[in-house]
Design brief:
This protein is of the alpha/beta class and 249 residues long. The protein has two domains: 2-33 and 80-120 and 167-246, TPP-binding domain (Rossmann fold, 3-Layer(aba) Sandwich), CATH 3.40.50.1220; 41-77 and 127-159, SIR2/SIRT2 'Small Domain' (2-Layer Sandwich). The protein is built from ten helices and eight strands. Bound molecules: 2'-O-acetyl adenosine-5-diphosphoribose. 2'-O-acetyl adenosine-5-diphosphoribose binds at residues 24-27, 29-30, 35-38, 41, 48, 52, 102, 120, 160-162, 188-190, 192-193, 213-216, 218, 231-233.
């Protein structure tokens, strides 16, 4: 017995064969990367339509580049935190473990997770907005002219912006795995941005037990089987410590 999690949650995690996870900016908050919404979120002071949309990029590519370079700088200087590491350890213990993330920071990979589905792309890669080619070694210095591809198109960060479609294969795989999951965890996401926010709901409709970990309640919280209030870097190690001894690898 413990007073943090229900016995059902422990039992479900201990006996599950297929685990699905959706993560959002909150799992990287304890690494020092700001989230988007909420009191200190980036979208309190900045406008998503100017910085994270095709229209914004076309109007002012230099501003968008400056913003992404600022975020890349933060990401390159931070490390994965306990939450990322616990998910990487969990992956080793279940026959099927899929991790869909809305984060573009690559920290799940750096923590050792293998089966990561990056729904919103990756901030560390670049591609041409016109011909779609991926381009290594792009140089942009604060204030310089935004880089261009051989084809003449503007080079952009390899992320998904508002109004754009998500990478088809990644999205399809995320939905398939959500539908097959015995247990689905929604961690550190405000569950407001679609289609990612559909994943836990879809998993639930297909019979999965849903656990949410977040210091604050979200639009998903009333629907989940267990809402665990708290930071992922604090909740996950305690939960996994209780569950891991019962998981048959
Ligand atoms: P949000 O900023 O919307 O939500 C972050 C969530 O993390 C909030 O619900 C916080 O309460 C929670 N949180 C904060 N600290 C936490 C911690 N230590 N542990 C666990 N949870 C914590 O971020 P996302 O839901 O990821 O898209 O946002 C989804 C998308 O909207 C992003 O991928 C981005 C954004 O605009 C694009 O840029 C296209």
């Amino acid at each position: 017995m413990n007073n943090l999690f229900s016995d059902t949650t422990i039992k479900k995690l201990a006996t599950a064969k297929r685990i699905g996870v959706l993560t959002g900016a909150g799992i990287s908050a304890e690494s020092g990367i700001p989230t988007f919404r909420g009191q200190d979120g980036l979208w309190q002071q900045l406008k998503p339509e100017e910085l994270a949309s095709v229209d914004g990029f076309m109007k002012n590519p230099r501003l968008v580049w400056q913003w992404y370079e600022y975020r890349r700088e933060i990401i390159q200087h931070v490390k994965p935190n306990t939450g990322h590491f616990i998910l990487a350890d969990m992956e080793k213990c279940y026959p099927v473990f899929s991790l869909s993330t809305q984060n573009v920071d690559g920290l799940h990979f750096r923590a050792g997770s293998k089966n990561v589905l990056e729904l919103h792309g990756n901030i560390l890669v670049n591609r041409c907005h016109t011909c779609n080619k991926y381009i290594a070694d792009v140089h942009f210095q604060n204030g310089s002219t935004p880089p261009r591809c051989d084809c003449g198109g503007l080079i952009r960060p390899g992320v998904v912006w508002f109004g754009e479609t998500l990478p088809e294969e990644v999205l399809e795989r995320s939905f398939t795995l959500a539908c097959e999951a015995d247990v689905y965890l929604s961690i550190g996401t405000s569950a407001q941005v679609y289609p990612a926010a559909m994943l836990p709901r879809e998993a639930q409709q297909h019979g999965a037990y849903i656990i949410e970990i977040n210091p604050e309640r979200t639009p998903l919280s009333t629907a989940v089987d267990e809402f665990i209030p708290g930071k992922s870097g604090e909740v996950l190690p305690v939960l996994w410590n209780l569950v891991k001894p019962f998981v048959k690898v």
